[in-house]
Amino acid sequence: SGKTTVMGLIAAWSILNKGQDRANALYSDAVVVVCPNVTIRSRLTELDPKLGEASLYRTRDLVPPHLMADMAKGDVVVTNWHV
Known about the structure:
The protein is 39% helix and 14% strand. It has helices at residues 3-20, 38-43, 56-59, 68-71; strands at residues 30-35, 75-80. It has a two-stranded parallel sheet with strand order 1-2. By secondary structure, it is of the alpha+beta class. The longest helix is centred in the N-terminal third of the chain and has 18 residues, at 3-20.
């Protein structure tokens, strides 16, 4: 139903806006995603912008190619609540 895409859009919105306005505390270039179990955590690794063309941001065309360098400056940590 699009939950992962929505998470990706929120992460991209925050990271890209922080890149444009470093002083604005409304945005963050670090995002934490907490999953209910290990299986879902492994599926959500596609939220890592450092995967480049293999990341959700490119496979679902959420971030244009020319902004991927800015997106890769952000940090998305995917963990499960057990950790």
